[in-house]
Design goal:
Strand 14 and strand 15 form a beta hairpin. This protein has two domains: 114 residues, Probable inorganic polyphosphate/atp-NAD kinase, domain 1 (Rossmann fold); 158 residues, Tumour Suppressor Smad4 (Sandwich), CATH 2.60.200. Strands 5, 6, 7, 8, 9, 12, 13, 14 and 15 form a nine-stranded antiparallel beta sheet that branches. The protein has a four-stranded parallel beta sheet with strand order 2-1-3-4, with helices on both faces. Helix 1 packs parallel to helix 5, helix 6 crosses helix 7 and helix 7 runs antiparallel to helix 8. By secondary structure, the protein is α+β, with helices and mostly antiparallel strands. It contains eight helices and 15 strands. The longest helix is centred in the first third of the chain and has 12 residues.
Length: 299
């Protein structure tokens, strides 16, 4: 009999998995799996459980928010076997699930593990850590993940961030002096915001900037907004973001498989919406098709 390890974070997304748990397990059982269920107990529990026991299973499934997914991916990357990973989104934004097409309906997401197809997905390294779909720095990075959906829907994630800056006033924010190295190209400038993405959805919203993002091409999309010399330039930046057409006068946009960042002062980062710490040196690399994930079959 095939064996399945099901890990879930009971506290993600207002604990909504509690009312769906029996249905999810029933879906797996009807598909002929012998199921081991493990509710995560603490930070990194999903990672440690997969590393310790993962190779005994034919399939591993995780349910939770983006942070729980990150833990699972970290564990998968430490296995010697290529085991497919199922994901049942239970967080508030679920950007990765939106991009790959996994339903927000938890039962349908569970059925994707049974009836879906296996997709080799790129994963990002961030120094000695990992991320699945985004690493970001700059103004309001943390706050923007907690904003009301209706505001994000109007502006899009990055545009919302800069709209917040415009409302508060540029004088309240310090430019981030940073050197960005991509291959032979070296960019030294002052920035207000930047992100490296492997997703078409950011902060819970489809991003027109990354509408053609591929999750298995070995490259990330990067966009970095220069610190405006004139506060009125934010209007042009916002218009560019909303249109999905990066303006080279105000921002840098490129695809890359490896990007290096350096700064004299520590810069705060987020990884998949979670605290990524403050760093003066960051190296981001794309691990092409590093983890196999179940996704819905295209109709």
């Amino acid at each position: 009999m095939k064996k399945l390890l099901f890990l879930y974070n009971a506290h993600s997304g207002r604990e909504k998995i509690k009312s769906k748990l029996v249905k999810i397990i029933d879906i797996f059982a009807k598909a002929g799996y012998e199921i081991t269920v493990h509710p995560t107990q603490a930070k990194d529990d999903a990672t440690n459980t997969i590393i310790a026991d993962g190779e005994r299973y034919d399939t591993i499934v995780v349910s939770g928010g983006d942070g729980t997914l990150d833990e699972a991916v970290k564990g998968m990357l430490n296995l010697k076997k290529d085991i497919p990973l199922g994901y049942i989104p239970a967080g508030s934004t679920n950007d990765f699930a939106k991009t790959i097409g996994i339903s927000s309906d938890m039962a349908k997401a569970a059925e994707t593990v049974i009836y879906g197809e296996q997709f080799p997905c790129d994963i990002g390294t961030f120094n000695d850590s990992y991320f699945v779909y985004i690493a970001a720095f700059g103004i309001l990075t943390e706050v923007s993940y907690e904003t009301k959906q209706e505001f994000k829907n109007v502006f899009g994630h990055m545009a919302y961030v800069l709209e917040g800056v415009r409302s508060v006033g540029m004088g309240n924010f310090k430019p981030i002096e940073m050197t960005i190295t991509v291959g032979d190209r070296v960019i030294k400038d002052s920035f207000i915001y930047g992100m490296i993405s492997n997703s078409t959805s950011v902060g819970g919203v489809k991003s027109p900037l990354f509408k053609e993002a591929q999750l298995n091409d070995g490259k990330f999309e990067g966009i970095f907004v220069r610190y405006p010399e004139d506060p009125t330039d934010l209007n042009a930046v916002l218009a560019s973001l909303i249109a999905g057409e990066p303006d080279p006068e105000y921002m840098y946009y490129f695809k890359a498989s490896e990007i290096n960042f350096s700064s004299d002062e520590p810069v705060a980062w987020t990884r998949d919406g979670e605290n990524g710490g403050s760093h003066t040196e960051v190296t981001i690399k794309n691990l092409k098709q590093a983890v196999t994930i179940f996704k819905p079959v295209k109709k």
